[in-house]
Design goal:
The chain is an all-alpha fold. The protein contains 16 helices and no strands.
Length: 331
Amino acid sequence: MDIKFVVEIFITVLSLLLLVVPCFILAKTKLIGATAEGALSAVVLYVCQPLLLVMSFQKTEYSVGILKNMLITFALAVLLHAVVITLIALITRKSNGDKKINVLKFSSVFSNCGYMGIPFLQLLYGDGAGEIIIYAGVVIAVFNVFAWTAGVILITGDKKSVSLKKALLNPNIIGIVVGVILFVTLKKPVVNLFEAGTLAANAANKIVRSVNFFSDMVTPLSMSVIGIKLASLPLKKLFADKTAYLSVLFKNVLMPVVVTAIIVFLPTDVEVKNVLFFTLSMPSATMSVLFAIKFDGDSDSATANVLLSTILSVATIPLTFMLYNAALSLA
């Protein structure tokens, strides 16, 4: 096992969590209000993340191999979400109707693959993250469809609240669709379509750089949202919630183990396996809180689940990666 890479993962997670500190302090000292969370979330969800997904396809030339890996990533992401949802439903079947347990189900299944997963992969892989972000975008698309369908049922216990339209018209899915269309039709990045030094080439470069300013904001803004959330919950209450620890056990430990067991021996490129492992091993999705509020769930419990999962991920991601890497070596 490459211990240096494990240490690098630990440092990457820690570096991400340090980004929550500025807005945590600003929120605690009342220099920014609770409304800032919604505003920043909207910018990330509707502008930065979709543009990041579009631009991830502009960092590499079209290849059949990448398209094939996207389809494999899609199929495996669907399978993994379905398996974990089924497992959690079976484990908690005797507690149906309990709002706290319903929130736990959602928090235990759905990863923060967008707000934290993409920033994590960007920091971990650096300039070589282009193809990796493409596959991560596919996972995010699957995440959104499952969250707005099976996820809504988990948190409400009612199929009537499901909205497939909202799942399919999610900004991230639109970003993926636009990115794929450009990727398949143009075959190469937009900046490479024009002869170097021409007016058209200079214009294309400047436009792409401007768009990249927005996509580069995903990491700091996403972690700032988490910082504001953390400031809204008393730490004593956070660490005293026993159900939150159960949620962390399911999300931060059980899910990575299930992912490892299913994908590690498959004859698939290691890049695809790594993306699936890392995105699905992220802490509980911030959407847990948003859905709890929207669907009259236990929002305090959801907040505790998400924040405790995020804090403890600094240890669980490197540790579960060691298990995954060991299994990968055997394969």
